[in-house]
Amino acid sequence: MIELVGLTKRYGEKVAVDGLTFSVRPGIVTGFLGPNGAGKSTTMRMILGLDRPTAGDVRIDGRHYDQLKDPLTYIGALLDAKAVHGGRSAYHHLLCLAQSNGIPDRRVAEVLDTVGLTAVAKKKAKGFSYGMGQRLGIAAALLGDPQILMFDEPVNGLDPEGIHWIRNLMKSLAAQGRTVFVSSHLMSEMALTADHLVVIGQGRLLADTSMAGFIRQNSRSYVRIRSPQRERLVDVLHEAGITVVEAGGGTLEVEGGKAERIGELAARYGVVLHELSPQQASLEEAFMQLTAESVEYHAHAGPMEVPQDWGAGWKGA
Amino acid sequence: MSTHQPPMPQAPAAAPDWQAAPGGTYSGYSSPIPIVRTHLGHALASEWTKIKSVRSTMWTLGVFILLVVGIGLLAGVAVRSSSSDLSGQNPLSLGFFGLLLGNMCIITLGVLTTASEYGTGMIRTTMTACPSRGRVLAAKAIVFFALAFVVTLAAASFVAMIQASLLEGHGARTPSTGEWLKGTVGVSLYVALLGLLSLLVGSIIRHSAGAITIMIAAVLAPLVIAMFMFASSMEKIRQVLFEYSIPNQMSVFYANSLSDSGPSGWDPLWIMLGVTAAAFAGAYALLQSRDV
């Protein structure tokens, strides 16, 4: 169990993490979601005692990180794959970590086997690919067989096989009753792995909900309709008691999954349809809407958006 | 979607309370690995593994031994083959030149022990594994100091013995026990302390190249600056810079200092000890207050 209470980190004027309060519970995968620069890594660094909070508190099973005497057997973390001395072999990297926590040396071989790095155990870490570095970081996190695991963007830069492996690993770790806390900026990734969801934007808590609840709330299903006889269709649907909403681009939208009914009505009344398609708003869209105001670095690609009433003042004149 | 449901434990024995009390007494996963209350010894073992598993240690110490032994032997042979007499000088003093150059290697290794962890990002892993920052610094300091002292002592003693036997009967006097002690143990402690100071500067600066530059400047600059202080009004400063420059303080261990005033006997060791202790306090305070 990781508990954050009003956790805040300021760098000069800039607030990186702003009064975060939530808990990470055992036995499930908790996804920590937010756009780039939302403060996910800073939060994780504060949990691990690497950064000192400006205000607030974070405890692991009621204790501060630096009160843990053998932290690796308590909480394993993959912060970034690059936190390794490139001149040291994978084996020695893990060995020095094991020794510092009094973990038996045999665990080094075990975790190397778990992540599939046994063949390159004696090779220098700087020769590792990104995926191998990520696996070495995960091996370090698993070294103490801890009850809490924390991964910062573990699937970043991995190939599909590696992503699949990490997803299954996280699920099986949680299934063993461990606490798994994983950050990502990809909603689709979270939807596949997380049971619980914590969303932050610009350091502030935006949502703290179960994944199922989030999906229920945010995945709107509707039917999109295009027809050359719009008015007639609207009348027909209205009479049948179906609410129609005008969407942009000459299309109509009907909430819920009523595509069959609409098709039958259109056929009965001889209305021509150009499109009748059931739609599902993606979780990615829901996430983007949730974090839209808090995205730190907006891209300005493509043509500039022109406000609809642009030039209205002089055009009319 | 299967992810809606919390996954069921695969091994019910590992989490017997899951169904009964999901939020309350649920204890989660418990590992078969024995829980150990760690202490400085664990950190020492870890740092020892670290220092011996990188190539820079082998390189710097290898070059160090090469310089100390090589230059020491060359000096001995050169003096022996020259016609002039040593006229009762301490033969151990010929070891000075090798150690003076060898210092650079010890400084480099000292700085790399701390600063390279910042350069590579390893420090985040280290501090996560051992959240007691003071313990990490102490373990690094002890392991490095012990290694630097043992290697320097071995190299310096070897050179001293060779020189004493090479120059026997060439007018060099037989060194006293005190001179032996200062020329081997004393100067080795001094060199190892200088390395430890570099380690601490590396921890403060957090940048390898920067810290090495600072340390080499600290060793050479006072002497070089003093050399160009011609004005008589600067005579006093010039004298102090000479006497307290690190090369001159090292030569005190062989009793062939540049001047008769200034530090003598074991003074240089106490001075270096004081400076290093102050640097340790500074490095420790910064380590506690700064984010990793």
From TrEMBL, chain A:
Membership in a protein family: Belongs to the ABC transporter superfamily.
Record key words, sorted: ATP-binding, Nucleotide-binding, Transport
Annotated InterPro entries: AAA+_ATPase, ABC_transporter-like_ATP-bd, P-loop_NTPase
SUPFAM superfamilies: P-loop containing nucleoside triphosphate hydrolases
GO MF annotation: an example: ATP binding
Domain ABC transporter residue range list: 2-227
One Pfam family named in its UniProt record: ABC_tran
PROSITE patterns: ABC_TRANSPORTER_2 (PS50893)
Name of the featured protein: Multidrug ABC transporter ATP-binding protein
Keyword Ligase applies: no
Superkingdom classification of source: Bacteria
CDD domains: ABC_BcrA_bacitracin_resist
Automatic annotation (TrEMBL), chain B:
Transmembrane residue ranges: 58-79, 91-115, 136-160, 180-202, 209-231, 269-287
Transmembrane helix found in the keyword field: yes
Alphabetical UniProt keywords: Membrane, Transmembrane, Transmembrane helix
UniProt keyword annotation of Transmembrane helix present: yes
Superkingdom classification of source: Bacteria
Protein name: ABC transporter
Organism listed in the record: Streptomyces cellostaticus
